[in-house]
Amino acid sequence: MNEKKTLLKPTRMRTHPHTTRSRLMLEVASQLVSQKDFPYLQARVSLREQGADEWPVTLFASDSPATIHQVAAGKVQFAMINPSMILKLAALGSAPFNDPIPLRAIAVLPALDQMVFAVKQTTGLTTFSDIRARKFPLRVSLRGQPDHSLHVIIDHVLAAAGFSLDDVRSWGGEVRYDSGMPYGANRIGAIEHGEIDAIFDEGASAWGNMALELGMRFLSLDETILRRLEAVGLRRGLIEQKYFSKLAADIPTLDFSGWPIYTRENTSDDLVIDFCRALEASKDRVPWAKDASLPLAQMVRDTPEGHLEVPLHPAAEGFWRERGYLL
Q1: For residue 27, is it within any domain?
Q2: Exposed end of the chain (fewer CB within 10 Å): N or C?
Q3: What residue ranges in the chain does DSSP mark as E strands?
């Protein structure tokens, strides 16, 4: 007598429940950070095996130099920074970093930008060095975000010029930390109302012409200052007259270009390749400055819009080369 065998088969699922739950939260987060009126726009994503105690992979959409310490400590595996030259400071061990940190790039999102030191023409200042020479009581607005890269860079510029913000205060000046970009009513509006004399910030293309229309002047950095800044790892830049019609000439300053994605030197090849593969698959869905897919062929090489201040991770370089983005 033949016994009938019961063949049990699991119901075929379209996707795994873990994937559904994670994708749901990630998609909602994506929508939230796309809303102009939603205040929480910075994302930090951690991944682990279901039910595990540790979170071995963290991706942080950061813009702060402080995150570099978290990457170095292995608490964050992939992060971003603006501008690119902050990674050079870390690689050299220049302030605010005490020792060289071995970092590697995955790619650099292009974003051409410069530092702007804008003052009212009525101050009579023409170069950054004039502030110290005249012990000018400058009333200046700086970015309110305390961990922004701007403050690291401004501290280096001040040191190279031989004075500090405390000196400015001692000369009768005022240092304000104002929220938001320079084009905000609390900053460029303060220029119009006579409350301040200067704005030091980045994002030249967003507010530079507004400042010039109000009769402001861009202070230049002289060659001595620029060489001192290059020695610590910063990159000289140029505010070009062709983009700012009211400028009489190009203005030597510091570069503020590039949004690099970076990791530790010893991040595993497999994890780096997984990240690169996912980035390539997402290139059509990530919004950036242009209405186009992410320009990966540009992002994986050194360009004026996004410098590779540290080398590509070997696994990333191999992946981009295999996929045809590098020759």
Answers
A1: no
A2: N
A3: 44-47, 57-60, 78-80, 103-109, 116-120, 139-143, 174-178, 198-201, 216-218, 236-239, 251-254, 259-264
Q: Do residues 161 and 198 both lie within one domain?
A: yes
Q: Specify which residues 44 forms β-bridges with.
A: 60
Amino acid occupying residue 97: F
Q: Are strands 174-178 and 251-254 parallel, antiparallel or unpaired?
A: unpaired
**C-alpha to C-alpha distance for 272 and 186, rounded to whole angstroms:** 42
What is the number of H-type helices and E-type strands within the chain?
A: 12, 12
Distance from first CA to last CA of the chain, Å, rounded? 69
pLDDT digit string, tens, across residues 76-94: 999 999 999 999 999 999 9
The residue type found at 57 is: V
Query: Could you tell me the CATH number of the domain that includes residue 208?
Result: 3.40.190.10
Rg (CA), the chain: 24
Q: Is 201 exposed, middle or buried (CB count within 10 Å of its CB: 0-12, 13-18, 19+)?
A: buried
In our burial notation (b when 16+ CB lie closer than 10 A, e otherwise), range 241-279 reads: eeebeebeeebbbbbbbbbbbbbbeebeeebbbebbeeb
- 172: tokens are 């009768």
Domain closes at, from 254, 277, 294:
254
pLDDT single digits (tens) 101-118: 999 999 999 999 999 999
Burial group, residue 208, by CB count within 10 angstroms (0-12, 13-18, 19+): buried
Residue that is last in its domain, among 254, 280, 302: 254
